Please model this.
Amino acid sequence: MDDVAVALDDDGEGDASRERLDVAALARRINGAVLTLYADHLSDDGRQVDYASMRASTAFGQYVAEVARLADEVTVDQLCDLTDDQVKATFINLYNAIVIHATVVRGAPGDMAQRTSFFAQSAYRIGGELLSLDDIEHGVLRGNAVHPAPWFRGSQLDVARRPQLAALAARMRPVDPRIHFALVCGAVSCPPIRVFTSRNLEFGLDAAAANFCSQSVRAVGERALELSSIFKWYACDFAPSVVSWLAERSDQLFRSSESPEADVLAVLAAAQRGEQVSLSYAAYDWSLNGH
Model:
């Protein structure tokens, strides 16, 4: 797909700086276009996208034109001037928008090789920098971490070649693992699509985590859990361990006193008592989250 630029997150906050006001205006336009697309072509639960009707829609054409017009209006300096919460919200929204845009234009990847290409090559140009889905997830949002696929080596962003972006990514450390419940890859097993701002970020990420975990974590024995493969791929982000992370937040993530959530809570309570809990991982459904 053609690379284009994207605008930034906006909270509607005033600022004496002309530069910041310009960025806010760009953000309002692009976020408005994304919201229109979501409203018209996303199911109520946020899990299904009607890609065929989206591609033919006037709103999609307007979105593409709007993003293209922003190609030269954002600088890396402006990105670096954002707060940490603005960076996180902006790049989550950006990632999800690129996934939708790329799926409409390129179609859904059908196998591992196509998925690797999809996430490495689907990109927007931002402030003169071409940022792919991999750059955004593993570079910016994961603090320039190593890609989880075994055939990748080294950090996602080359510090020598892209020093400003690498410095921006360093601000995202330690990784907020809740991002994995907000990023959408276009597959059935992905979390539902949401739109984030820095104002709703904490609430939105907590809600996304609770929604995803309540549906993707289940007890399969008195001391055993089956989890989404996301927890296996990104285990290093859930410090000190996946089980500890879930147990420490169990009251927030699993709020029902009835099964199946009550069964999960019982296993996590055992983990908090120091008992050994075994983990298994459900096969990931890469089928398209729409039609």
